[in-house]
């Protein structure tokens, strides 16, 4: 996203759009969120902004977890354009998220992302109800849900190392 002056991981500093703010404000009013113990957010700006909107509406404390970040398209953070990032994502898809045997790629592997996200989720597995705010691709690696919409609530029961989600599109 060099177009906005950001490249590599810097693109994750971008704030929510006006539409994103509206989506977060609508989600924050959902009654299912009121009984949570804590909101755990990705360290990326849009997720933290969403978590703060939910916190403002619910009064629930926000904690940032560094492992809750999105998939890393370039672990050296050297890509300079969105197209380069998209090309790395296409390569990830081509190889079904795992490196070919004996090779290392620039992108974070699915198994590595799953391990990282599991570490984050495991920290809160003993809590009764937690709101996680983060990124679709990262959450999908734990839940196996194919598509998630922005500011969508997906209810899951999580036990260390395993998510059981009841999910249907509305």
Q: What do you see in this structure?
A:
The protein has 170 residues and is an alpha/beta fold. The chain is built from 5 helices and 5 strands; from the N terminus they run H-E-H-E-H-H-E-H-E-E. The strands form 2 sheets. The protein has a 3-stranded parallel sheet with strand order 2-1-3, covered by helices on one side. The chain has a two-stranded antiparallel ribbon with strand order 4-5.
Average pLDDT metric: 84
**Would you count the extended β strands for me?**
5
- Radius of gyration (Å): 16 Å
- The strand line-up of the biggest sheet is 2-1-3
- Structural shape: globular
Q: Which stretches of 5+ consecutive residues score pLDDT under 50?
A: none
Sequence of secondary-structure elements: HEHEHHEHEE
- Main β-sheet, in a few words? 3 strands, parallel
Helix content: 25-40%
Computed structural class: alpha/beta
- Kindly estimate the percentage of residues that lie in beta strands according to DSSP: 5-15%
What is the helix tally?
5
What is the topological layout?
Layout: H1 18-28, E1 38-41, H2 45-58, E2 62-64, H3 82-94, H4 110-122, E3 130-133, H5 136-143, E4 155-159, E5 162-166
Parallel strand pairs: 1-2, 1-3
Antiparallel strand pairs: 4-5
Report a brief summary of the structure.
This protein is of the alpha/beta class. Helices cover 35% and strands 12% of the residues. The longest helix has 14 residues.
Record keyword descriptors for this entry.
two-stranded antiparallel ribbon, 170 residues, alpha/beta, three-stranded parallel β-sheet, 12% strand
């Amino acid at each position: 996203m060099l177009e906005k002056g950001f490249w590599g991981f810097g693109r994750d500093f971008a704030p929510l759009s006006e539409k994103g703010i509206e989506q977060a404000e609508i989600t924050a009013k959902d009654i299912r969120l009121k009984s949570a113990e804590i909101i755990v957010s990705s360290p990326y700006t849009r997720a933290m902004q969403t978590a703060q909107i939910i916190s403002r509406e619910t009064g629930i404390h926000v904690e940032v977890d560094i492992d809750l970040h999105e998939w890393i398209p370039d672990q050296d953070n050297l890509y300079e354009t969105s197209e380069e990032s998209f090309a790395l994502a296409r390569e990830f898809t081509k190889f079904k998220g795992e490196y070919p045997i004996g090779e290392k790629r620039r992108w974070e592997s699915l198994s590595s992302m799953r391990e990282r996200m599991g570490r984050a989720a495991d920290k809160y597995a003993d809590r009764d109800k937690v709101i996680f705010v983060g990124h679709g691709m990262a959450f999908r690696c734990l839940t196996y849900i194919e598509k998630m919409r922005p500011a969508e609530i997906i209810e899951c029961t999580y036990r260390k190392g395993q998510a059981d989600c009841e999910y249907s599109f509305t």
